[in-house]
Amino acid sequence: LLRAGPDSASAGADPDTTQAGRATRCARIAQRPGRLAPPALRAEETVMQVSEVMSSGVLSAAPGDSVRSVVIHMLSRHCGAIPVIEPDRTLVGIVSVRDIMLPMYPKLGDYIHDNVGTRDFLAMEQGYDAVLAMRVDAVMTRNPLALAPETPVLEAASWMGVKNFRRMPVTRDGKLVGMVSIGDINRGLFFARIGG
Predict the structure, then answer these.
(1) 137-194: per-residue pLDDT in tens?
(2) What torsion do the CA atoms of 27, 24, 180, 196 make, to the nearest 10 degrees?
(3) How far does CA 44 lie from the centroid of its chain?
(4) How far is Cα of residue 34 from the mean position of the Cα atoms in its chain?
(5) What is the mean pLDDT of the chain?
(6) Percent of the chain that is helix, strand, coil (3-state, to 5)
(7) At what angle do helices 153-163 and 182-189 cross, to 10 degrees?
(8) Which residues of 19-52 are buried (b: 16+ CB within 10 A; e: fewer)?
(9) Each residue's pLDDT tens digit, 123-137
(10) For residues 95 and 8, what is the distance between their CA atoms, to the nearest angstrom?
């Protein structure tokens, strides 16, 4: 399980992840010529964490569930990804709309050998029933990048930007505790900074 955020660092790792470390880094940046320094944190201010904006009542799937059941949940809950967990809530994967759609398309080798027949979109569409009958563990992304609840929200947004994700699972000790989306982060920042 890949981790992002404070839990991923070892005890003596990057001092910039602590509040004191960030203040020191801000001071170093301010000393560089021509650079605008980020505002220093006041003693009473803390960085907003993922745990403050995440959804905790998260719908999840088991590896043995059918893709059909996951699609039904996605459509009824208007969500684009569902975490896949074991009975003890250990995160083992995530299944997204993209993961469900990809099996309908030919593989790269098929394009190379038959670039005409591989563009039969009617045949691809008819393959959707076969995809719905598959198990979740056949289409899911295994060992997804996960965030710790203590991760600063803008660090989480950075991971989402770099990886082109719209949402990420949140885990503690490998167990699913929630999901956070870029929309959750935006909403949290807006109400904390502007709309308060």
Answers:
(1) 999 999 999 999 999 999 999 999 999 999 999 999 999 999 999 999 999 999 988 8
(2) -60
(3) 30
(4) 35
(5) 82
(6) 45, 20, 35
(7) 150
(8) eeebeebeeeeeeeeeeeeeeeeeeeeeebbbbe
(9) 888 889 999 999 999
(10) 23
DSSP code, position 64: T
DSSP state at residue 12: T
Written as six digits, the tokens of 30 are: 């301010």
Alpha-carbon torsion (164, 4, 179, 185), positive or negative = negative
As given in the structure block, the two tokens for residue 86 are: 């074991």
Write down the pTM of the prediction.
Answer: 0.72
Q: Is 5 helix (H, G, I), strand (E, B) or coil?
A: coil
Tokens of 145: 């990048």
Burial classification of residue 182, based on how many CB atoms lie within 10 Å of its CB (0-12 exposed, 13-18 middle, 19 or more buried): middle
CA distances from 68 to 10, 58, 65 (A): 41, 18, 8
Tokens of 139: 């289409």
Q: Is 141 helix (H, G, I), strand (E, B) or coil?
A: strand
Tell which residue, 93, 119, 91, 92, has the closest CA to residue 105.
119
Q: How many CB atoms lie within 10 A of CB 180?
A: 26
For 75, phi then psi, to 5°, come to -70, -40
* 164/150 Cα distance (integer angstroms): 21
What is the C-alpha to C-alpha distance for residues 112 and 116, in angstroms, rounded to an integer?
Answer: 10
Q: Which two tokens stand for residue 101?
A: 């759609």
